[in-house]
Amino acid sequence: MQMIPSKLILNTGETFDGLSPSWQNKEFFGEIVFTTGMSGYVETLTDPSFCDQIIVFTYPLIGNYGVPQSNYWESSKIHAAGVVISEPCLYPSHFESSMSLLDWLKSQNVPLISHVDTRAITKRLRSQGVTLAAICHNEPLCSSFFDPNQTHLVQKVSCQKITSFGNKGKKIIAIDCGMKENIMRHLNRYNGEIVRVPYNYDFTHEHFDGVFVSNGPGDPSYCKETISILRKVLQLKKPTFGICLGSQLMALAIQAQTYKLTFGHRGQNQPCLNLIDKKAYLTSQNHGWAIDESTLPDDWSVYFRNINDGSVEGIIHKQDPFFAVQFHPESNPGPQDTAFLFEKFFKMVDLA
Predict the structure, then answer these.
(1) I need a labelling partner for 122 at 20 to 30 A (CA). Which of 8, 23, 162, 210 fits?
(2) CATH topology for 3-150?
(3) pLDDT confidence band for 141 (50 / 70 / 90)
(4) Correct CATH for 153-351 of 3.40.50.880, 3.40.50.10860, 3.30.1490.100, 3.40.50.720
(5) For 195, what's the count of Cα atoms within 13 Å in the CB-facing half-sphere?
(6) From residue 21, how far is each of 16, 68, 279, 288 by CA, in Å?
């Protein structure tokens, strides 16, 4: 694949020179963020939570094991708006690889810039915060920057129809705000019917035994319909479990507040402390927003806390069967230390 000079331009004025495939003949925009991890680029790029974000991979060599068939993906396509890496692997080696990373990105019309100083970009994002950016070839430089945080991103990635899995036991409603496929794999390990519904589908007039709220992209305040539905669910005291964006939506449903983190938490090695059992867990994360601890109602408490910056990584009700975590216990990519939280939720459902 022919590579030609290109630029990564931040809306704050910084410019980083690199190389991009020659097929990229226009400007590509998004919010630029960084993520850690030596592997997992396929799962990361197909995670709907990364919708309209330009991802800087901090590990220097990306693409060495290629891209497997889509049954290993976290959704049906790449949701990221662009990819920034130090060095792409042109000749991957893995028995399940179906194509190279560069060929995959081209097939999905997702731009790449390589041979840039990803360390310098990451240090800039950590010190000054995430920002808007563009990947482009030509002068004059990018004239405008699209801000995905000013749009309803969940609307773009949520499922469009109701689907049901399993046929026995308790009925679990899974609200899809941009759900990763590995979450569905975990939910389907337990007895019961899992009904996957769009983010704005009001199911509260139907029979159900528990509610799961998925991950997803963007500013949680845009999901007003989901928040309204969750308020009804919590009034019914049905067991409820939220992950990532689902955690933020549950917080908003109880009149707490959320705020945007400076550079977010994205990667496979984020340490969190469980404030109940006092154990530390390594977690997989991808979020740019967090819950404001000072706004939690008195009947809620912090469940997990980020060991690096002290931010809230989970909340739990003091009496009722409600809890949520900011990280990804289903992993893919990342450690599986907190997969036990799915079992905790289903035990709550069985006891309800």
Answers:
(1) 23
(2) Glucose Oxidase; domain 1 (3.50.30)
(3) low
(4) 3.40.50.880
(5) 18
(6) 16, 21, 46, 29
The CA distances from residue 67 to 42, 63, 114, 284, in Å, are 7, 8, 18, 20
Q: Is 159 a catalytic residue?
A: no
Q: Which of 125, 122, 132, 110 is nearest to 57 (CA)?
A: 122
144-194 pLDDT per residue, tens: 788 888 999 999 999 999 999 987 789 999 999 999 999 999 999 998 999
| Apex 232 CA angle, 210 and 342, nearest 5 | 25
Q: Where are the domains of the chain?
A: 3-150, 153-351
The residue from 27, 31, 313, 330 that is catalytic is 330
Known active-site residue 244: yes
| 330 assigned to active site | yes
Q: List the catalytic residue out of 181, 244, 272, 317.
A: 244
Retrieve residue 151's tokens.
Answer: 């749009």
